[in-house]
Amino acid sequence: xxxxxxxxxxxxxxxxxxxxxxxxxxxxxxxxxxxxxxxxxxxxxxxxxxxxxxxxxxxxxxxxxxxxxxxxxxxxxxxxxxxxxxxxxxxxxxxxxxxxxxxxxxxxxxxxxxxxxxxxxxxx
Length: 124
Known about the structure:
Elements: H1 2-22, H2 25-53, E1 69-72, E2 76-79, E3 83-89, E4 92-98
Antiparallel strand pairs: 1-2, 3-4
């Protein structure tokens, strides 16, 4: 990026300056206004298309699939709290139980204790 910036400063800037100096100020202003308008129209259009096309995050599964999810304005989606369900995958049944806050727990009636020590696993 630095090399491209240096090349633009050395090669393009003087040529662009001479070109702009030969043009009337009204033409330069009109060109800048058209480019600015095109930029903002493209930005608005792309934002609208992205909002309509990608309503869910790439990791989210359909809302009807276990465990159930709901939309969240901050995170995109969260698990539906205070419920239990199960799902069969590759012949294996997986139990999903969530406490009243939405954390996954071992079984109904249990909750996460934030005061207990925590182990964090990372990696692939």
